[in-house]
Amino acid sequence: MKLHLDKSNHPNRIQSCTRSGAGFVIRIDDQPHTSSLIITPDRIIDWKVNNLSEIRSEDFRRIADINPEVVILGTGPVQEFPGPKVYLPLIEAGIGLEVMDTQAACRTYSILLSDDRIIAAALIL
User: Fold this and answer.
1) Which residues of the chain fall short of a pLDDT of 70?
2) What are phi and psi of 72, to 5 degrees?
3) Is position 9 within any domain?
4) Which pLDDT score is estimated for 96?
5) Which site among 7, 41, 73, 92 is 20 to 30 Å from 66 CA-CA?
6) What's the pLDDT at 37?
7) Predicted TM-score of the model (pTM)
8) Is 23 left (phi over 0), alpha (psi -120 to 50) or beta?
9) Residue numbers of the domain that contains 110
10) What is the pLDDT of residues 82-91, one digit of tens each?
11) In terms of Cα–Cα distance, which of 35, 43, 2 is closest to 123?
12) CB 55 within 8 Å of CB 82
C-alpha cells in the first residue's frame, strides 16, 4: 500500500487523538483539547458531556442546525450507542449518524474532511 502525506490546509483538521489517563487529548490545528467538543470544518464548540448517558436530544438538535451531511459520534474509549430518542433531531432532519469509539471517530472525521464533506463530529474526551 502506498501512503501519502496529507498536506491539506483544511481548518479544524484533527492532527492526533491520543489516550491520556481516562480520557483523550486531541490536537486540532496545533492546539490541544482535553474536554469533549463538537467540531465542524468551520467551528469548534465546547460540549459539556463526559459520557454517553449525559447526551441529550438538544445536543443533536444544535448539531442538526449546522446542517451537516453526517454526524460522527465518538463515545470515548468504547463504542456505545445512544437511544434513538436522543438522536431523533438528526433522523427528522435526514442527517446520518455514525457511532464509534473516539479514536476511530477522529480518523473518520479527518478522512471525510479531506474529501471536502460537510460533516460534524461530536467527540467525548
Assistant:
1) 1-9
2) -105, 120
3) no
4) 97
5) 7
6) 98
7) 0.91
8) beta
9) 14-123
10) 999 999 999 9
11) 35
12) yes
How far is Cα 67 from Cα 6, in angstroms, rounded to an integer?
Answer: 26
What's the domain count of the chain?
A: 1
For residue 45, the model assigns a pLDDT of: 97
CATH number of 81's domain: 3.40.1230.10
N-terminal to C-terminal alpha carbon distance within the chain: 31
Dihedral through CA 52, CA 58, CA 61, CA 65, nearest 10?
Answer: -120
Return the pLDDT at 8: 58
- Give CA angle at 56 (54, 59), nearest 5°: 110
The pLDDT value recorded for residue 75 is: 98
Cα separation, 43 vs 119, in Å, equals 11
**Of 102, 99, 54, 105, which is closest to residue 80 (Cα–Cα)?**
99
Q: 49 CB contacts (<8 Å, ≥6 apart)?
A: 36, 55, 59, 122, 124
Alpha helix ranges (H) inside 18-83 = 57-66
| Domain contains 64 | yes
Residue 1 CA: distances (Å) to CA of 4, 99: 10, 27
Amino acid 1 reads M
